[in-house]
Amino acid sequence: MKKTVLVSGGAGFIGSHVTVELTQAGYDVVIADNMSNCDETNYKGVCAILGRQLPFEKIDFCDSAAVEALFSRYTIDAVIHFAAYKAVGESVDEPLMYYKNNLDSFLNVLEAARKHGTHVLFSSSATVYGEPEKTPVTEESPRQEATSPYGNTKQMCEDFLRDCVKAYGMHGIALRYFNPIGAHPSALIGELPRGVPNNLVPFITQTAIGKRECLSIFGNDYPTPDGTCLRDYIDIVDLARAHVCAVTRMIEERMDKPYEIFNIGTGRPLSVLELVTSFEKVNNLKLNYRIAPRRPGDVVAIWADPTLANEKLGWKATRTIEETLASAWAWEKHLAGRA
Ligand code: UFG
Q1: Is 73 a pocket residue for ligand 1 (Cβ < 6 Å)?
Q2: Are both 286 and 147 inside the same structural domain?
Q3: Is the CB of 289 under 6 A from ligand 1?
Q4: How many helices (H) and strands (E) does the chain have?
């Protein structure tokens, strides 16, 4: 019998790509979103890629009665929880808004999952490692004190899941994403930042299309080979496939222990300048950029050791940075109606 996965925040950037991969892998997916941080573009794109309408539930995960009703309406085998605020800077200005939204919503999911015997996958982040002492980071690398309320909610939600699994005999996985970038090869779904993008790749594509005048590279005097920061940029479709592997591992009861954590990255560090140069080369264009002062709070260098995910999940990043950066550009052109 087909298994059903609930994707909270399923109309967002990561949630929409995960929905496509899960459906193509044979799962029934229920998308749930309160649409507070996105429009219908990605939901429509998902339906266009799959050639059919998927169940969509407009709900706020902070509403515990609505969450419970949702879990009662469907037989949900696993829930993947993406519904959360995600802007680091905004979280510093509005900590209460972040704590209320990101913690309440996950607590409601955990409560319903406990009651209904649902497996839980939590979308965590490499932000939990802070500035690592040693790179690449493994899942055993120590977490560092969070530097923003956003980062703190990721750590706290990981702990909520760990403790609930232990106390209630549940099963849970936390995936720690490195830097998700790119878009679906169809260019029908992708990242839709609100206002001025904080993240590098949306800023690059918006500069290339003419929406932004100039990309600022934040600092070129870091202790790295070319002086710019190092990150592990993971293709969004590769990242989405890791969720399929993790959900299947839970549903098929193949876990080594009831709560597991996996790094989801490529294992390959790339500097900001290398990424910009690759983008220019693969898309055959010149980007207007300048070197600007360092951005406060930036980690100098972090990339994943993805061995555990490779071995236990049977997952590996496969798309090249060129394919990924071409997909990001195709998506921006699609949005501009130029493709
Ligand atoms: N960068 C620029 N110019 C820009 C934007 C970014 O030079 O306009 C640089 C940053 O300084 C950094 C790199 O590009 O060196 C990557 O920056 P992103 O903002 O794309 O990504 P981060 O690694 O800073 O952010 C990620 C996740 C967040 C998470 C954060 C924690 O996107 O969700 O790590 O540090 F919280």
Answers
A1: no
A2: no
A3: no
A4: 12, 13
